[in-house]
TrEMBL record:
Key words of the record: Glycosidase, Hydrolase
GO terms, molecular function: limit dextrin alpha-1,6-maltotetraose-hydrolase activity
EC number: 3.2.1.196
Name of the protein described by the UniProt record: Glycogen debranching protein GlgX
Record domain Glycosyl hydrolase family 13 catalytic: where: 183-563
Origin species: Pseudoalteromonas fenneropenaei
Recorded name of the encoding gene: glgX
Pfam families reported in the protein's UniProt record: Alpha-amylase, CBM_48
Keyword Hydrolase: yes
Organism superkingdom: Bacteria
Length: 686
């Protein structure tokens, strides 16, 4: 016989206590909170147990006997006054904000909406269309973490499903799942590239927006979170959340870190007229930001209908508890924060000393993990690249756009390109940060793929159902003469070379490089630059045999191998003229030091940069020619007592080693030379 007694208000969520479970939630304006228990099928509600109120707006109840696997949800009653931002409705079954697992599927229906048109309270019970929370207590992660320093990190951004769903070398039941990412076939591939960290697109439980499902589409990317602690169930083979831990442990054993792309800026409850699924029904005004003086109107800095109110202490605790859970229990090594500016914005705008940032900086667990910001949102003052404090890293879209413009052949790009190759000192050095604070990338999940960047001059998003109005219109892209697919050998060869040029620039620039999945074998989305709703072959990587034999895979492998041999790329500080150990020098085609007037020649589309370690007598020379003509090049005198050796080039017109100091550099090509005492080469030396 089950019994219930007053529980304890902390910790929040469902916690094991002796032979029972303590349930605790936050609902300060509610008049009652009811715990609802369900049978093993999740269809029948077998008990409704009133919770007990505590000071501070917390509610709890302890139920015994009750074991792991129990299914539950909540019904919360209180005033229904939309004009005051109060949306209580006990007819709606709510998910526990601290739920660790779910049972069953979410189904869209009118029953999820708190009110009907004209603000009338909805009396429809939505329990039949809701998944149920599942009591689960996974053990803390006990694997050994790689703990790669940023200087040795190569990030590979990928989608859990899209990365492996078409890979025939992986068992069918693991394709498109967490366990597919730790299959030897996938690990061997990314290890060959030199990848040290997987950055997974949203892997916390999410649902598709109703407007997408009505068009027969799905939210593929996953930026529509339903639960902050729950691995997305569709990515599990057998529904066991411990599969996520298994994936992490296997990747760690292979030397691969796991970073999660997390969405703490908004939830799947959309706008004020959206569904009531969890937060909105517990305390709408605590969990979401509203317009000052208008509690019935959400602030929508996310563009997704609502914005999380991280200034509220309980909401801040929810997010930090979630982050610690993914680190301590699920084993992840860090996070990439979607629309991170929102998490550091209060009523006065973005604040680099925001409580959220300070909380992570002093947290004994979170201060040790990798933290990456997407430093922009659509709110006022939303673009904050370079404004996050140490130890944050930031996605550097200035790097992306500058490199794209240079290789497209735009004029006047040279001075900015030099800054990006030097680690974007103009962006990060002002607040005592270095080149390794910049996450450099050419492409990501959002926008053209690398292959499409050189194949399309305009976006082709018609299949998204928005008349091609969605997605960025300016992509700094080009098509090499033909829009889209072609069988012309000369155009295909040029496209391959241009992709190599971009990759060379990315992987030899100072900073932390990031690859988007599929860049290594020409993945195309047929010109769709906003494939967020394309859960199909448009987005899924097309594995054709062993992709590590693709020319781009080999090229990435070779550039990364060279990069790791030189201490230059591990230097965490910017190099200035008075640096006693390192030096950066820029040269003309004639091998002479660049003068001020050279930088301001608008038609100059040629750049040569030498990075030097005077202590170890190592140097690399990067030469980039984005012009439409070949250039007679004289290599500068090596800054170390050793001749230049050609390490890599994107050009197919050159074969074998090259030691000559003069040569004809073909149009639209990139070249990498090295000069070093052989005994001094070591990626581990500083």
């Amino acid at each position: 016989m089950m019994s219930s007694v007053r529980g304890v208000p902390r910790p929040l969520g469902a916690t094991q206590i002796e032979d029972g479970v303590n349930f605790a939630v936050f609902a300060p304006k509610a008049t009652s909170v009811t715990l609802c228990l369900f049978d093993a099928s999740g269809h029948s509600e077998i008990a409704q147990i009133p919770c007990v109120r505590h000071e501070g707006g917390f509610w709890s109840i302890k139920v015994t006997p009750l074991a792991e696997g129990a299914l539950y949800g909540y019904r919360v009653d209180g005033p229904y006054e939309p004009e005051r931002g109060l949306l209580f409705n006990r007819n709606k079954l709510l998910l526990d904000p601290y739920a660790k697992d779910l049972h069953g599927e979410f189904t869209w229906s009118e029953r999820h909406f708190c009110h009907l048109p004209k603000g009338t309270l909805s009396l429809s019970d939505n329990a039949i269309d809701m998944p149920k929370c599942k009591v689960v207590w996974p053990a803390k992660y006990d694997g050994k973490r790689p703990n790669h320093p940023w200087a040795k990190t190569l990030v590979y951004e990928c989608h859990v499903k899209g990365a492996t769903i078409r890979n025939q070398d992986i068992a069918a039941d693991k394709r498109g799942k967490f366990l597919g990412l730790c299959d030897p076939a996938f690990i061997d591939h990314i290890k060959h590239l030199g990848v040290t960290a997987l950055e997974l697109l949203p892997s916390q439980a999410f649902i598709s927006e109703q407007f997408l499902t009505m068009k027969g589409l799905q939210n593929y990317w996953g930026y529509n979170t339903l639960g902050f602690f729950i691995p997305h169930k569709a990515y599990l083979c057998k529904g066991d959340i411990r599969e996520f831990q298994q994936m992490v442990k296997t990747l760690h054993a292979a030397g691969i870190e796991v970073l999660l792309d997390v969405v703490y800026n908004h939830t799947a409850e959309a706008g004020m007229d959206g569904p009531t699924l969890s937060f909105k029904g517990f305390d709408n005004l605590a969990y979401y930001r509203t317009v000052p003086g208008k509690p019935d109107a959400y602030i929508n800095d996310t563009g997704c209908g609502n914005t999380i109110n991280i200034d509220h202490p309980v909401v801040l605790q929810l997010i930090t508890d979630s982050l610690r859970y993914w680190v301590e229990v699920m084993g992840v090594d860090g996070f990439r924060f979607d629309l991170a500016t929102i998490l550091a914005r209060n009523s006065g705008g973005y604040n680099s000393a925001h409580t959220f940032l300070q909380t992570l900086a002093q947290d004994p667990i979170l201060q040790k993990v990798k933290l990456i910001a997407e430093p922009w949102d659509i709110g006022p003052g939303g673009y904050q690249l370079g404004a996050f404090p140490a130890p944050w890293r930031e996605w550097n879209d200035k790097f992306r756009d500058t490199v794209r413009r240079f290789w497209r052949g735009d004029q006047g790009v040279l001075p900015e390109l030099a800054k990006r190759i030097h680690g974007s000192h103009d962006v990060f050095e002002h607040n005592i940060r270095g080149p390794l604070n910049s996450i450099n990338f050419i492409t990501s999940h959002d926008g053209f793929t690398l292959a499409d960047w050189v194949s399309y001059e305009r976006k082709h998003n018609d299949v998204n159902g928005e008349q091609n109005r969605d997605g960025h219109s300016e992509n700094f892209s080009f098509n090499c003469g033909v829009e889209g697919f072609t069988t012309a050998a000369d155009i295909s060869a040029l496209r391959l070379k241009m992709q190599k040029n971009a990759l060379m620039t990315l992987l030899v620039a100072k900073g932390v490089p990031m690859l988007s999945a599929g860049s290594e074998f020409g993945h195309s989305q047929s010109g769709n630059n906003n494939a967020y709703c394309q859960d199909n072959v448009t987005s899924w990587l097309a594995w054709k045999g062993t992709q590590k034999h693709h020319a781009l895979s080999h090229f990435i492998h070779d550039v990364i191998r060279v990069r790791r041999q030189f201490s230059l790329f591990s230097n965490p500080f910017y190099v200035h003229k008075d640096d006693v150990r390192f030096a950066v020098q820029w040269y003309t085609e004639q091998g002479e030091v660049m003068q001020e007037h050279h930088w301001h020649e608008p038609e100059r589309k040629w750049l040569s940069c030498a990075l030097v370690d005077k202590k170890l007598q190592q140097s690399v020379l990067l030469i980039l020619n984005a012009s439409d003509r070949a250039v007679n090049v004289t290599l500068p005198a090596p800054p170390v007592p050793s001749p230049w050796q050609l390490a890599l080039t994107s050009s197919i017109r050159h074969e074998g080693s090259m030691t000559a100091t003069k040569f004809l550099m073909c149009e639209k090509s990139s070249w990498l030379f090295t000069a070093t005492k052989q005994a001094s080469i070591s990626g581990d030396k500083q």
